[in-house]
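Priority: medium. Attachment 1 of 2:
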């Protein structure tokens, strides 16, 4: 990642942004166009390829503080790693608040976004629900991030999707 990225305890945590995962570069292009139609463009939108995200994640994991495992930041980083290994691309978008975050999540879901996570100071909110009706269960540093799959693992969601 060429631009400066925000971190908390050594791992990626872009407070005030929505992190959007898309299955390929074409979906990222379509999602960026949809954001432009909403008036969100320029410096508010940062694009990351699968390789850029993998490089960033590997750096984050290597320098992460033990405190990073207390919250969900490390679980999200590891879930993003699974997606990056499968060729996913990202848009990281600065938003003015919850309503704008929800609007952009709806717009990018229509373009193939699998995840859109709004990073607040104390909570990270999933804005796109998984299809399939599997309810989300409590997450913890030990259990990890619930991907809303029967096993709760992101790799199962991606393997089943692609």
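Attachment 2 of 2:
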């Amino acid at each position: 990642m060429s631009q400066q990225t925000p971190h908390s305890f050594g791992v990626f945590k872009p407070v005030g942004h929505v992190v959007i995962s898309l299955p390929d570069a074409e979906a990222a292009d379509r999602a960026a166009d949809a954001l432009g139609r909403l008036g969100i463009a320029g410096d508010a939108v940062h694009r990351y390829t699968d390789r850029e995200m993998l490089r960033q994640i590997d750096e984050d994991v290597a320098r992460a503080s033990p405190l990073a495992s207390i919250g969900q930041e490390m679980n999200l980083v590891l879930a993003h790693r699974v997606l990056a290994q499968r060729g996913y691309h990202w848009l990281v978008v600065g938003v003015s608040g919850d309503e704008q975050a929800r609007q952009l999540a709806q717009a990018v879901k229509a373009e193939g976004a699998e995840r859109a996570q709004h990073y607040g100071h104390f909570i990270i909110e999933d804005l796109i629900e998984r299809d399939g009706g599997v309810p989300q269960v409590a997450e913890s540093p030990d259990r990890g991030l619930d991907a809303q799959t029967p096993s709760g693992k992101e790799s199962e969601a991606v393997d089943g999707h692609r």
